[in-house]
């Protein structure tokens, strides 16, 4: 993705942040209801805001960042937990005050996806640059 070197955690977080910003920018132009994908928003949020998925985040904050209602978030968090992609830790006094973190499987899955997306973005950039060089538009 990045020449001959492998992407590191900061590269992945930066790419994850870009993917999250691109997803969120759709809401500036089209109705948010057209793009309901709560589980993906949760996974991206956990990866980007949770230090590449390694830092637990409060359930309420995850739902706010993913722009989904708490009840919807809870349902998707349960499913993601059942799939082995996240780990939930419940608060004793308030179940919604619990914390969530990506599991190792979740981290690995997100890293593979982000590496793949990064490679596609890089390849597109190289193609555009080569096209511009061929057309004589690129100034060195």
Entry keywords:
140 residues; mainly alpha; single chain; 5 helices; three-stranded antiparallel β-sheet; globular; Arc Repressor Mutant, subunit A; 58% helix
Notes on the protein architecture:
The two termini are 23 Å apart. The protein has a three-stranded antiparallel beta sheet. It contains five helices and three strands. The longest helix has 32 residues, at 104-135. The protein has one domain: Orthogonal Bundle (Arc Repressor Mutant, subunit A), CATH 1.10.10. It is mainly α and 140 residues long.
What portion of the residues fall into strands of 2 or more residues? 5-15%
Q: How is the biggest beta sheet arranged?
A: 3 strands, antiparallel
Spans of at least 5 consecutive residues with low confidence:
none
- Helical element count? 5
> So what's the overall shape?
globular
Which bin fits the share of residues in helices? Answer: 55-70%
Q: Give the class from helix and strand content and strand pairing.
A: mainly alpha
Indicate how many domains the architecture comprises.
Answer: 1
| Extended strand count | 3
- Please tell me the overall pLDDT: 79
The end-to-end span amounts to: 23 Å
The CATH class is: Mainly Alpha
> What do we call the CATH topology?
Arc Repressor Mutant, subunit A
> What is the second-level CATH architecture?
Orthogonal Bundle
Radius of gyration, rounded? 18 Å
Question: From N to C, what is the helix and strand string?
Answer: HHEHHEEH
Output the strand order for the largest sheet: 1-3-2
Name the CATH superfamily assignment.
Winged helix-like DNA-binding domain superfamily/Winged helix DNA-binding domain
InterPro entries: WH-like_DNA-bd_sf, WH_DNA-bd_sf
Protein name: MarR family transcriptional regulator
